[in-house]
Each structure stands twice: as structure tokens, then as C-alpha cells.
Amino acid sequence: MLDYNDIKPKKFIVLDGAPYEVLTAHVFRKQQRKPVNAAKLKNLITGAVREHSFAASDKVAEAEIETKPAKYLYARQNEAWFNKPNDPSQRFALPAAKIERELKFLKTGAVIDLLYFGQELIGLRLPIKIDLKVTEAPPAGRGNTVQGGMKQVVLETGLVMNTPMFVNAGDTVIVNTETGQYVERRQ
Questions:
Q1: pTM to 2 decimals?
Q2: How remote is the C-alpha of 62 from its chain's centroid?
């Protein structure tokens, strides 16, 4: 069981029988009242985000989230197909809507972790930084570069993102999967 002040970002908790990931948490005290932990929680089954305040006397159970590796194959129509990394014959599909945010970072052959709550598959976890190849990039143009000129490029997964002017087609860039932003160009 977790006390109210142990509920911190990146923790998994069970609230009302459903697993939640803590996105943000802030412990504060209003005037002479008891301290509370105002947390923003993401439901791992539905994806809905809600706010909840935990009082000093509240205790919540930590969710037991199991991870299993899987290899991404492809996405077609409304499904994303995976298989077990060591056994290509064991294929399975996930609804693309369930992993819509993560799908734009997945390239064929990537090994990721699937998250399970009990026997139910609730999503997947990507590495924080991944390498993606730039497929389309306009030429660097002249203009206002005082603020560090940026241009939009298309990556191999179809993701469109802003990068510095020196990034060209064929380059490999490192992308932060949590923020969806450019980190650096791979040499």
C-alpha cells in the first residue's frame, strides 16, 4: 500500500478497481488544513485522464503491471500486429486506437514491452529515446535563424516533426517518445 505522499509520477496505482499511471503529483497544504496530494491520473484501460486529491489518511494499492516483450510487425486498417520475439508463428493484433500515440514511433521489427494488468493487455511501453530515419526534408532555406531556425521533416514511420535546419533526408535522428520532440542527429 502506498501512502498519499508516496504517489509520485511514473507509479502505477489501483483506484476504484482500475489501474492508473500517475502523470503528475503535488503535495501541498491549504492554509491550516491537512496536506493533500493533488494528482493527475491516466486510466491505463480507457486512456482517460482525471484529477484526484489524496488526503493524508488515504492509502492506495500499487498496481502490479507485468511486462512481456513483443516485436512490432505492421499496422493495417484498425489493427497493429505483433509477435513474440523468439516465435514468429505466435502473432496477435491490438486495436490501433488503443496504442494510437505509441504507433507513430514504432518501426517494423522494433521490440517493445507490452503491459498487462492481470490477464488484460492494457498497452505498451516504448523506450524513452528511439532512432528514426528522415525520409523527407525540405532544403534548408535562408531566413530568420536568430532563434535557431526549424523545419518540418517526415520520418520513416510517417511522423512529422520540427527539426533544426541542418537535418537532411537520409539522416537518422533521435526522438523523445514521451514529448514527441527532436533530441539530436545521430552521426
A1: 0.71
A2: 20
